[in-house]
């Protein structure tokens, strides 16, 4: 896919953060956009910020499998085809394995993993039919390394990575006209920390303060990196200097990275 002009692009979680920035960047490139979010107010703000493009907004809870498949059918009906699906919607959870409730564990997996898996599977036949498709799944640097208090988030993001890398190989082996990219953002200045669930004695303000210290990349910069990665058909798209650093450390040290993460976590009083 060398040019995105007039391509039909689906973006979940488009009501804020990376999703909103992606919508703006894609609109500038002449894409036709199907934008969704569970937050209708935020989604409306995104649509209002986009000028002169073919844009439609849909309320969607990616934790609802049936809703995702219905959404795929509706988008194809509205636009006639789909070229790109960007499974971006996600949430966060800060809790140790011992503290975490089953309900919270299921909540984050339903959205961060199953939302991606069902979104991919629902749109894949339409991407193949388009003759020029692309699946873009948002993982995280936490899909590259494990971090204390992030076991559930790690589980979801590692699962997204494995699922996406396997799909890319399948599409190539089957000679299907669908490219596949897995995105690993580092710290991005979004509101995800504000909406995170916590089961430990930690305030939202403290979590946000700590997150702001390590958030190195703006959503706009992240979006540009992702779009360029799509156009280059990159299998792994690293977003931000911290993502490149973490990937390098992981490749260099293997499992020996873990003592470094433990030390950093203790210094930040995460556990």
UniProtKB/TrEMBL annotation:
InterPro entries referenced in this protein's UniProt entry, alphabetically: KR_dom, NAD(P)-bd_dom_sf, Sc_DH/Rdtase_CS, SDR_fam
Chain segments annotated as transmembrane: none
GO molecular function, one term: oxidoreductase activity
Keywords per UniProt: Oxidoreductase
Ketoreductase domain segment(s): 7-191
SUPFAM superfamilies: NAD(P)-binding Rossmann-fold domains
Enzyme Commission (EC) number: 1.-.-.-
Family: Belongs to the short-chain dehydrogenases/reductases (SDR) family.
PANTHER family attached to this UniProt entry: PKSB, RETINOL DEHYDROGENASE 10
Name this protein carries in UniProt: SDR family NAD(P)-dependent oxidoreductase
Organism: Marinobacter aromaticivorans
């Amino acid at each position: 896919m060398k040019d995105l002009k007039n391509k039909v692009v689906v973006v979940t979680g488009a009501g804020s953060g990376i999703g909103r920035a992606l919508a703006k960047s894609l609109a500038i490139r002449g894409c036709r956009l199907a934008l969704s979010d569970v937050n209708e107010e935020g989604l409306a703000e995104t649509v209002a910020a986009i000028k002169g493009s073919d844009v439609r907004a849909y309320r969607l809870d990616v934790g609802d499998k049936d809703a995702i498949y219905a959404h795929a059918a509706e988008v194809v009906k509205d636009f006639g085809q789909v070229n790109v699906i960007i499974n971006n919607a996600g949430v966060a959870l800060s809790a140790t394995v011992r503290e975490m409730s089953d309900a919270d564990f299921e909540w984050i997996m339903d959205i961060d993993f199953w939302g991606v898996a069902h979104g991919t599977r629902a749109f894949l036949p339409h991407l193949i039919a388009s003759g020029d498709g692309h699946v873009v799944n948002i993982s995280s640097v936490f899909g590259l390394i494990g971090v204390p208090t992030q076991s559930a988030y790690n589980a979801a993001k590692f699962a997204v990575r494995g699922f996406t890398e396997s799909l890319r190989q399948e599409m190539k082996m089957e000679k299907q006209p669908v490219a596949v990219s897995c995105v690993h953002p580092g710290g991005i200045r979004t509101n995800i920390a504000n909406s995170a669930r916590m089961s430990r004695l930690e305030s939202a303000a403290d979590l946000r303060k700590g997150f702001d210290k390590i958030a190195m990349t703006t959503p706009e910069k992240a979006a540009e990196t992702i779009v360029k990665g799509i156009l280059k058909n990159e299998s792994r798209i690293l977003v931000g200097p911290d993502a490149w650093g973490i990937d390098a450390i992981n490749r260099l040290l293997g499992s020996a990275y873990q003592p470094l993460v433990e030390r950093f976590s203790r210094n930040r009083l995460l556990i």
